[in-house]
Amino acid sequence: MEFRHLGNSGLMVSEIAYGNWITHGSQVEEDTAVACVRAALDAGITTFDTADGYARGAAEEVLGRALKDERRDGLEIFSKVFWPMADGKNDRGLSRKHVLRSCEDSLRRLGTDYLDLYQAHRFDYTTPLEETMRAFEDLVRQGKVLYIGVSEWRADQIERALKIADEMGFDRIVSSQPQYNMLWRVIESEVVPLSEREGIGQLVWSPIAGGVLTGKYRPGADLPAGSRAADPKSEKFLADKVADQALLERVQALEPLAAEAGLSMSQLAVAWVLQNRNVSAAIIGASRPEQVESNVKAVGVRLDAELLSRIDEALGDSVQRDPELTKSPENIRL
What we know:
Blueprint: E1 3-5, E2 12-14, E3 16-19, H1 30-42, E4 47-49, H2 58-66, E5 76-81, H3 96-110, E6 115-120, H4 129-141, E7 145-151, H5 155-168, E8 173-177, H6 191-198, E9 201-204, H7 239-243, H8 245-252, H9 255-260, H10 265-274, E10 279-284, H11 289-295, H12 305-315
Parallel strand pairs: 3-4, 3-10, 4-5, 5-6, 6-7, 7-8, 8-9, 9-10
Antiparallel strand pairs: 1-2
Helix pairs in contact: 1-2, 1-11, 2-3, 3-4, 5-6
């Protein structure tokens, strides 16, 4: 395993982080989830990302139990707050009430007394940003959170938060957690340049595009049994992609490129993400331990400029680049 700083902070994170969105508490049984966490630890992964909104807290509980006997100071445990956790009017968003209560609940579920990183899971249009930033600052001062970050925020939203932090003497955002992969590059034109200037690192999710970049979804073929796109619990996240036959054909063109590089399709996808030096870590998920063991082999891989150019040529207009595609719900009370 190799390690990078989280932005310009002193915190080091493993280049591959293990995330449990969809899987823990939902898609896979707990014994399988624990086996995946064990495979991550055995591979040298020390960074684990979750959120209270994943399976309404169940994912945090599973991760907490899986890491229970590990040395806490040797791990980096991240969580997030924003999505509804109950039906009450204050059980959602980034209000002071919800942020402080949610942090306490996450700590309890994870079985820890602090989070290395606490992230605003989306931008909240219904709460003054100053209120949110002060709530995060209070958690830092209480020692319950070491660093703060955001997930799926636009560049202008991050910039506003940085300005408030500077004006009020608060800790600054050190990380951004966006979707980023060969097909989804919407952070490159605005979020990445801002982050490079301001010392913010990217913790990117979906580096293999939910499995699409593994090449297992083939044009004109039935969905593979046991795949995420065939699972009623998760198929909604991939329905558009696996229905796009032109996209699937372009992804198949990556197969010989991966073979030339001596990589599997998924390893190529993860390695591609890590070529961006503003990326602090690529977050992988897994429903089987073997997936973890395979994907960590992308660590340390260097892709040359010619190969990167051929990847761009193969994917062509299937690549999404418009920063306007990064959106947070404007009324989370619905």
